[in-house]
Amino acid sequence: MRRFELVEGSSSKFWEVELSGAELTVRFGRIGTAGQGKTKAFDDAAAALKEHDKLVKEKTGKGYAEVRVAAGAKLAAAPTPAPAPALTAPKPVPAPAPVAAAAPAAPAAEASPTPSAATTDIPWPQGGFLWTSALRERLPVLRSLHMPDESALW
Fold this sequence. Notes:
Layout: E1 2-8, E2 11-20, E3 23-30, E4 36-41, H1 45-61, E5 65-67, E6 122-123, E7 130-131, H2 133-137, H3 139-146
Antiparallel strand pairs: 1-2, 1-5, 2-3, 3-4, 6-7
């Protein structure tokens, strides 16, 4: 018995063929099912072999690939589906490590104390923040809410 399988996209099919003298038996269907089978009798073994070779060539041309079958396996036996994977609890995700506070960078010698409209998204040395244009627009609000002491900024 020879077994061929085609698995592509949502298609998952098998095709089996067995030559026994002047009889040719085929079985086909979805992988995991018993499928359906047909047996055809020929006048002689040579005609059955010719039909066997023709069908194998046709199936391989369509993309079927031959797979090994255990010795002594019966053609009528349905392929056994793979066991479902055991359900396990998801692994816990470790908590992120605390981020060490960045050391404040030394102020640049000629850094402007106030951001200008011409500068765009450049890192400012105060507290290791990246001062984006959106933050710069809200700087007066940030000063009043979070840092009442203006000397802490500059």
